Amino acid sequence: MARTCTILLMPVLAVALCLSATPAQADERVNAMVKALRTDPVFVSGAASRSVPPAQIRALRRAVAAARVRVFVVVAPAFGGEPGLGTFDSLPDLLHDRLERDGIYLAVELGPSVHGQAFGVPVRFDTGDLRSAVYDDRPEAGPGEAARYAVELLTTGRRDAVPRRGGEATVQAAPVVAAGLATGALGFAAAGWPWIAMRRRRREQSAAPQAALAAAPPLDPRVLRDRAHGQLAGLSAALAAADAPPTPAFDAYAAASKLLEDADEDDALALLAALELVRRADATLRGRPSAPCFFDPRHGAANTRTRWRLGREEADIPACRPCARKVAKGRAPAAVQDGGLPYFERDTLWARTGFGALDDQLAARVLGGEARR
Questions:
Q1: What pLDDT digit, counting tens, does each position of 242-296 carry?
Q2: Domain boundary at 156, 173, 196, which?
Q3: Is the previous residue joined to 217 through a cis bond, with omega within 30 degrees of 0?
Q4: Do residues 361 and 265 both lie within one domain?
């Protein structure tokens, strides 16, 4: 009984504690970043400098200098080392609001995880797909390399995947060959584009890949736990600052807190679910609740849907665009693993809900104790 009361009181206590301290801390850190960006478009925090070799910083600066639009980049540890920032994907908006300059804004976690927004300037790649594209194309990159690739992707639109160690690249670019094929196909494209577009839409809605699912990058429980604790603190501050936070945001907060308290040290899937609940709570708080990518919630919010066979039936599932494009081409996206199998082939709460992709009642089911069954 005492344990249950503690769990239920955690969100209230955390929000109360953050009312006075965390917003000020957030302002201090964001203001320090803005001050640095006024004189240098690349800011690497002191806490992140050991994770970003000088060669990566030089390459990043060259990419920023070569861009034809203004670019601002922040590389910093999210939350754990920089507490009080709220969810890290909101940092580009905060920086733009304070700096009051149009351009591309990138916030890069040490994971690395890249968050980007463009304000008043054109980009050649959808910022909504940026996080998953960098994740797929640079699976083993450090934060500096991930930031450089994100800058080039947004300013040139060219994707150039590198192979995973011991595996295949998710996208293999061949600019010279592609240019030659494009030149020869112009006449056909002009006449046949409406038909091609119709076929593509049909494939995205109904195609199911024949290839075996690849394994997504492994989950590190320690990293996931640290990140979840930090993001939960940021969410607590955001809830405290909101005038009338919606109930689903509080429920997701409470469920994430419960998972962090109950999860074993090596229970990476529960910790991943906690992170997804924090993301969902923040999106709900902003009035934009969204399901995660079914194949890997680390891809972020799903921005399209595709067809996938679950057991003996095909289902309409949320996915990020890169994963949906792979399905449409008959290729299998990389999926989060659970004991050597795609997580959704197990009989767990995460499989039944797709980490919230298939069931938006994930928070209620966690609070009801279903994660332990």
A1: 888 899 999 999 999 999 999 998 999 999 999 999 999 999 988 888 899 999 9
A2: 156
A3: no
A4: yes
